[in-house]
Amino acid sequence: MILKYKAVSDKIGKEIPAPFYATPGSAAMDLCACVDEPVEIAPRALVSIPTGIAIALPSPAYVALVFARSGLGIRHGISLSNGVGVIDSDYRGEIRVGLTNLSDTPYTVMPGDRVAQLAVVPVVQAALDRVEELDDTGRGSGGFGSTGR
After folding, report:
1. pLDDT digits (tens, 9 = 90+) for 51-95
2. For the residues 130-147, what does the mean pLDDT come to?
3. Contacts from 39-44 at CB under 8 Å and sequence distance 24+?
4. What is the C-alpha separation between 142 and 149, in angstroms, rounded?
5. Which of 112, 123, 125, 130 is the most exposed place for a label (fewest CB within 10 A)?
6. Superfamily classification of domain 4-122
């Protein structure tokens, strides 16, 4: 598939890399911080980082999902503030990345830093059927941790 993107900042492709797949086996492309100066994320603070791009998914059969970069989380405690970002097929605004600092140490995002990953995946819009009972399974209604450690 072809994913059309628009640079909403003149810096894209010059000072700030356009989205890119880091390796041939990458499932998601890297998104970079399109900021004019460093942005400090204080411990337990929330920030919204612009990426300088907007996208046009080809149809409602696709969604773009914004995921955290594992290295930022594991090494620095930087995570997405909303868990996973959902870019619907009809959204045409700039993609912004909400980050939070879960550590006790301030973290600085530099212009051009890779701050998140964007994966394009198929969507199935389910038809809903309200029923009085659901079929039984081995797990049943067992909740968190019910399948073991």
Report:
1. 999 999 999 999 999 999 999 999 999 999 999 999 999 999 999
2. 83
3. 39/108, 39/109, 40/106, 40/107, 40/108, 40/109, 41/78, 41/99, 41/100, 41/101, 41/106, 41/107, 41/108, 41/109, 42/101, 42/106, 43/101, 43/103, 43/104, 43/105, 43/106, 44/100, 44/101, 44/102
4. 14
5. 130
6. Deoxyuridine triphosphatase (dUTPase) (2.70.40.10)
